[in-house]
Amino acid sequence: MLAHKTFLKKTRRGKILKVVREHYLRQDLHCGWKACAHCAVAAPSEASVEAPLNTPLTPPEVSPCEAVASPHLLILDTNVVLDQIDVLESGHLADVVLLQTVVQEVRHRSSPIYKRLQDLLAQSQRRFYFFVNEHHADTFVARRPGETPNDHNDRAIRRAALWYRQHLGWAVVLLTQDADNRQKAQAQGLIALSVETYVRGLVDQPELADKLAVRAEQAHDLTRPALFPEHWAPAAINRGVKNGQLLVGVFYLSRTNYTQASINVEGRDQPVLIQGLAHQNRALDGDRVAVELLPAPEWRAESEVVLEDDGQDPGDTITEDHAVSGSTSRQVQPSGKVVGIVQRKRRQYCGVLLPSPVPQATRHLFVPAEKKIPRVRIETRQVQRLTGQRIIVTIDAWPRHSRYPQGHFVRALGPIGDKATENEVLLLEHDIPHSKFSEAVLACLPELPWVITPQDESERVDCRHLDICSVDPPGCTDIDDALHCIQLPNGNFQVGVHIADVSHFIRPNTPIDLEAASRSTTVYLTDRRIDMVPGLLSSNLCSLRGGVERFAFSCVWEMDPEARIIQTKFHKSIIKSRAALTYEQAQNRIDDPSDETSVTQSLRQLMSLSKILKQRRLDQGALVLASSEVRFTVDSETADPIDVQVKQMRDTNSMVEEFMLAANISSAKRIFQEFPDCAMLRRHPAPPPSNFDPLVKAGKRQGYEIKVDSGKALADSLNAATDGKNAYFNTMLRMIATRCMMQAVYFASGTIEEPLFQHYGLACPIYTHFTSPIRRYADVIVHRLLAASIGADSTYPALLDKKSTQNIANNINYRHRMAQYASRASVNLHTHMFFRNKKRDEIGYVLFVRQNAIQVLIPKYGLEGTLYLRSDTDKSIAFHFDEDEPSQSCGDVTIRLFQKLRVQLTLDSSNVQHEKLVLRLVEPHIPGFSVEAISDDETSMEEEAPLAGSTPSSKIEANAKPTRKRSSPQNSKATPKAKKGKKS
Fold first, then answer.
1. Is the peptide bond before 399 cis (omega within 30 degrees of 0)?
2. Are strands 96-99 and 72-76 parallel, antiparallel or unpaired?
3. Element (H, E) at 355
4. Residues 179-226: pLDDT tens digits?
5. pLDDT (tens digit per residue) in 336-380
6. Angle of the 693-701 helix axis to the 729-739 helix axis, nearest 10
7. pLDDT confidence bin for 981, thresholds 50/70/90
8. Strand locations in 447-526, DSSP E?
9. Mean pLDDT, the chain, integer
10. What is the predicted pLDDT for the residue at 936?
11. What CA–CA distance (Å, rounded) separates 167 from 638?
């Protein structure tokens, strides 16, 4: 049967076109009940597109719900799926029909919910059935003239529900949140209920009511006074954006002051400053918001106050105090207020329950683990079971009269303090995909034993005769690069960078490719690694291990003795690494004059060329910045940290890095030359001059002029700023410079102008990532482009579409940023575990001076801590803040930037949700404020060598810590666990 779908389409020029499409209808689509006599022969269904694992319906003999007398099927409308997905995932609802009309609308309105819905359909035990109602002749509903899409969809859902009742003769319950839809359904003889009514009627599942989302209309209480301004309507926001009255950007809450935020607006050099809870107007970190600029006389500077929520519930009040305002001596910046939420950052949050002091109360406060998220009011009847547990909560609404948003309980994770639970919280909080790889993904893996065939040998360059070796951190199993160097008869050198050929095993648009694209990066935590691709590839078939044959993608140069590139070739190859060395092993071989093996000679030539390459980069203005990198020594039985130390850098680290940088640059030039509109590149924008104000001021106070006119000027200034009396001065100055940088990002070449391609930190005009396809999806895309450019592989439509490439880049940027945050959080977690039940005095240096606190660098542990300038015992102790110097004074003691201190470190576990490392001043001694030093046998006071901190900017790329490589725990005491990677 043939029907026609008609709709109107507006062209770019504003013309309205009437589009008519043929729509095929069938009678033989299965209803879902396995024993259905009317559907004895199941026909192939379009359902396979949406739900490849459809499962049959088997309604129970008795009704599970008091609100419905007889056994029944459930049919859901779109808003039920969008709002109550946690209820659907709970496992307590079964025999649910999901209509094509609903699934398509969910797909259009929310990609995350659509993905979760697909997962539900794939679970055979759940009995969720996808029915293609829009292609069934008896359930298709044509659009009426003047009918809205919402009314049409509601009518289609009711039509399908009536058909199911007539077709099977069972009771059918339509769950809908729309009162008008319920009324119309009931008028047609259907049973129509709200989700709340149905869930509260499930006699055996009373706790399921805790998972009900709070609807916006339920959250508002017009009888209570408003605390926040009303949000503008969407139409008003659109008009305001068009006429320039409003700006739109992403809302980022400060990590050090919960009353202060910034909004990054595309096209503006400076972010918009938001100060005060009223001006934040219920925006959450990560929301896309509309902001109205305040009049210029009301613009402010960023506050120097370090302000944390004290954990006390102030009730439904907001108080704006003096701590919010910025200091008058700092440069003001555009300030504004949030007037509307364009798009919420919908996600779940981990944390703990703060039980109400009222006995038998059902409403309680939830305290998120993420300090940038406010507490959430939830309703639960399981307070006794959930107290002391880490739980997950979703925010549903934030009414004007409430100090906090309202949400609902999702599930419990486990006991507070349990290591497995805390690691799960860390992953969930940073949105790290960490579930097991699906069967569909694993089905894409090659069968074992994997062998190289004669056809493979005919299609690739044989490099097995070359003295190729890899150099990596100890315990590294995902080895994705190897090197070789030989001298040519003409006196030049052939240098090869050989990269794991991951794209050979991951073909476009396969389940494994889609999963890798979604994850985008391997995440390295202190005690584990979450792979982007299954272990068979990451640690075996793609890992360039010593002594085994592997596929590689090779970048081979001819270089003269001055490391100038004469020519560059790319080819797919077969290699057999002679050795998989650690940085230390490679360094020892290079330094051993008695070692004249071919591999060692190759390493020495590579080292010599790398030093020339590095010096040339530095001469061109590449930055050398700094970061604090630590590694933990753990107990083999408990996996708890028993020691922590700053990571050591060797010349071999720099050697490998230089050739990785060179390979990345050569790859970028090649793919941009061949694919100027869709090349996957990476850029590092130059920071606006105002970003450097803290650095310039810090240098000036120490008698050094820091020039920021160009990257070269900045690099020369930092090189010249040394202090013979303070070994850490230059390192700390570079750490401040790191915080002034912009974030490096991936992008599609056709989306911006070529002058914006530059990588500021590396001082190069074009850059990409080619050298780590095992752990970065961007490199996989680059490999595919390179393969197409040399005729080794074919292209496909998405690869040549700049919009598709940019969408991939956006996801990679997000996943990369979250992976960095998760890695840092993992270090913090293990640092807290190390300092539990310990008290230590250590040497520290003043890194920043704030209005009410000092941020201190502890070189021995490579960590930073905050020393709050308040006395818990003597309230008369007062510090004077001199912002111009900057310094803090108390009596005759003055604490200045970069000053050496002695501090005492302890872990404050009084707040189980937010344990924190507490710093107390030992020296210089301030009566009534400083604490007594602990005995020598209880602490280690020796000074360490400067941080591994002259870390090239190529490693940290715009304020991002280097990625670490880690292996699984080894069976020995004091096993190093936090190992740093080498790729930029």
1. no
2. parallel
3. none
4. 999 999 999 999 999 999 999 888 778 788 899 988 766 666 667 788
5. 999 999 998 888 899 999 888 888 888 899 999 888 899 999 999
6. 160
7. very low
8. 461-462, 469-472, 481-487, 493-500, 523-524
9. 84
10. 55
11. 60
**Domains defined for the chain, CATH in brackets:** 20-212 (3.40.50.1010), 234-318+327-343 (2.40.50.690), 348-429 (2.40.50.700), 828-950 (2.40.50.140)
149-168 and 179-187 are packed helices; what angle lies between their axes, rounded to 10 degrees?
A: 40
Q: What are the distances in angstroms from CA 160 to CA 5, 35, 53, 101, 419?
A: 18, 19, 21, 10, 49
Q: Answer for the pair 300, 332: CB distance below 8 angstroms, yes or no.
A: yes
User: CA-based angle 596:597:603, to the nearest 5?
Assistant: 90
- The residue type at 244: G
DSSP 1-17: -EEEEEEEEE-TTS-EE
Amino acid, single-letter form, for residue 177: Q
Within 10 Å of residue 396's Cβ, how many Cβ atoms?
20
Long-range contacts of the stretch 778-783 (C-beta < 8 A, 24+)? 778/520, 778/680, 778/682, 778/746, 778/809, 778/812, 779/499, 779/502, 780/502, 780/503, 780/506, 780/516, 781/680, 781/805, 781/808, 782/667, 782/671, 782/680, 783/499, 783/501, 783/502, 783/503, 783/553
Residue 654 tokens read as 């720099």
pTM of the model: 0.81
Query: φ, ψ for residue 403 (rounded to 5)?
Result: -65, -30
Secondary structure (3-state) at 964: strand
C-beta atoms surrounding 581 within 10 Å: 22
Is the backbone peptide bond immediately before 449 cis, with ω within 30 degrees of 0?
yes
Q: What is the amino acid identity at position 591?
A: D
Structure confidence at residue 269 (pLDDT) = 74
pLDDT tens for each residue of 143-177: 888 888 899 999 999 999 999 999 888 889 999 99
Chain segment 398-417, per-residue pLDDT in tens: 998 888 999 999 999 999 88
Strands 461-462 and 565-576: parallel
